[in-house]
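Slide 14.
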Amino acid sequence: MHGLGLFSFIFFFSACVLLLLRRLLSCRSAAPPLWLRRPAVRLLLRVPPHPLRPPTQYMQDIYIYMAFRGIHDADPLDPSVLLLQDRHRSHFVDTEQLQDVLRPRQQVRAFLSMWRLDPRIRPYVIRAGFYGIYRLGHIIIDWPLITCLVERWRPETHTFHVPLGETTITLQDVAIILGLRIDGPAVTGTYMVDVAELCGDLLGVTPPADALRGLTIFIRWLCQQLSTPAADADEVALERSARGFILALIGSFLFPDKKGVHVHLCFLPLLRDLTLTSTYSWGGAVLAHTYRELCRASLDRRCGISGCITLIQLWSWERLHVGRPDFGRSVPFAAPPLPHGLHDDDVDGVDEDVVDGLPVQHGVHPEADADVAPEPALPLGCRWRVPLTRVLNPSGVLLLYRDQLDAQTSDQVLWQPYVGEVVDRLPALCLADQDIWRTISPLICFEIVEWHRPERVLRQFSLHQGIPPACSYDHQLHRVDARGRHQPDWATYYAPYIALWDSRAARVITSPPSVGLMESQDPYMLWYRRITRRFMTPQLHRDDMRFHTTAGSMNVMVS
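Slide 15: predicted structure.
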């Protein structure tokens, strides 16, 4: 009895120590010591004992875990880079605690159905630099694809970790896909605004209390008040209507909130002079906001994601093979002109060649009205706003997407998709700021600051990729948000980061040109395989009622 009591005491003490270690690892800010990385210790941390659970039950849990999962640990061999692995979405997928698809938070289609762009305010939207975003409009989102990408996003490096290396959305992608300016002053300012005075001056209407939620305003209310300017409206009234349209477009497409039905009024002062509006780095702000939303969604079992989801999906379609649809007929450069009687907002990337009973005429230009200005050149993303087909590439299945990425081969990544005819017809704005595409600088959008890391994805710029320098993960910077902060002047709060952005041209990374595809034994790939988790599908996963993956077996063989 004495021996049994001593054994129970030792088990109780060990269980408490393991639970404490697991808790410390979940919130660590540096790499754990070497002894914590040993497979036996990692196994005990994966299946920790409980002080109130009998030892025999604990040993049975260990046996079941090893029989089902195998003894191989899919986490990185060198955890010095991915410091947040124990909080990352891939960790919960690996232990089969998280299988759900992320829920959408985007209302751009609802906005475009409520607000038909008046031809009289179209020139103002073009002048402000948002017409390409409007023409891109709504594209059906493949949420399993977005979920699959979030599982491979790493907040420590701001890159997607795919089997062939790191890749990410850069300033180049934002400029070419969305047609937004990336050079220029940072999108920042203050939250100290008088709502009634600001809206009365720039929109011509004062919102009631039920149209506001703090410093955000309902997009539906903007549509009801400003979407139909009077027939005899003067230039001031038309410009106010244009500001309301751009503000709603910003809130529903570029910077949607958690529900996608509000837009923050902090953007409105930047729309005072629409000519000056076009000079801001809206592309940098969108990328900062997208990075932040990807970071949030990838940690702690989050169930939703907001931000510019269209940018993430179109970037994936341009560069990766997973879930990419095919064009129904000849590949168009931009969105096909619409036939008479069909409004811009009716085509949204559906899979048929008939929309609302009217055939989509590929490559046929209708006669332009005499009173309407010629259609300006459109960004590359607009070419996906056509009927698409997925006959050759199945879509919409998260398990399939994971398996396709796990089994990725060298010919399934387009490192340089923007070449040849693709860029020949782009508007000048898309290619205007090539000198800062590779800048290592902070991206700023009011309370959000995220680092642009092109030095980790030099193959996207046709340059040789070496082992990148270490990048620190700033916990404090990621904790700053707008919750409870209604008065700060972000331009003052982030003055050091804004100064770094202003000197962006001085921190452009360079490297020798790349020659051919990178070999599997290249020093970068040897390093990369040690610091990352290449396979996302749980090993030895078998379900008689579902698709059986092939990459899990490959993982076992590689290991």
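Speaker note: The chain has 23 helices and twelve strands.
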